[in-house]
Amino acid sequence: MLAPMEGVVDHTMRDMLTRLGGIDRCTTEFVRITDHCLPAKVFYRFCPELHSGGLTPSGTPVYLQLLGGQPEPMAMNAQRAAALGAPGIDINFGCPAKQVNRSDGGSVLLKSPERVFDIVDAVRRAVPAATPVTVKIRLGYSDRSLLSEVCAAVFAAAASELTIHARTKEDGYKPPAYWQAIAAIKDSSPIPIVANGEIWCPNDYLDCVQQSHCQDIMLGRGLLAYPELARQIKATQQALTPAPMHWLTIVDLLEQFCEVTEQQYESKHVGNRVKQWLGYLRRQYSQADELFESVKRLRLAGDIDRAIGAHRLALTES
Fold it and tell me: Does residue 95 have an active-site annotation?
């Protein structure tokens, strides 16, 4: 699964990554729910795939993620999202952002298993039985002491699936991820469990499977740094060793991303998104450093696109 990374994995990025193969499902960035039912246009903005049966152009389902602390508004909005055609509803109890937590959303709710139950139960009752209701959590807020109770609440509320990011809110995104902490939950769970966190390469996937006992995983930063990671993992599952993707193919993706993003955002914002992705790519591809240096001071989409083109030309001529 492709993780719902706020401010990073929008519909454009979902399209880019799912076209490469290996991803079975995506989840939107979270839709913030307060005390009222949002208009349809908000759901379409977060999930334009609703216009196409809830699928990316390459046919990958996109679940719509909701974040909020009140059962009734969460249920109302889940019902509306399902009516608009969302293939599934995901509930965010994992976001560690301080502003989100201060506003009664995300991982702060892991302090109260009973509230987790109330929200999941309300959403489950509000949407059709055939619509999956999935949940994403962390190991806990400040520690793991309530993990079993939180998971029990999710199970009791009849969620369809549970993704566990193998760190607490206090851990943030600092390595390592504690995959082994998921194993006991997985071994006794009545529903599928998905492991998430710190999977950067196929060997990390193998370690995660061994330690967490999960066969299903969710990829976030690792997939942005290594766009073919999901495809490579699928090959690993089949004992295959596909040829690695050439850097020029990544450059193709960056050019397409720049072009498509310019159609969606003001030109002055395109550069930040391209640089953001390049920042992740630098972890996996040494050539990304050189390209990043050539675009880091540029602001306009046209200038960045030309810099990428010059980088491509230099590669093909060398």
Answer: yes
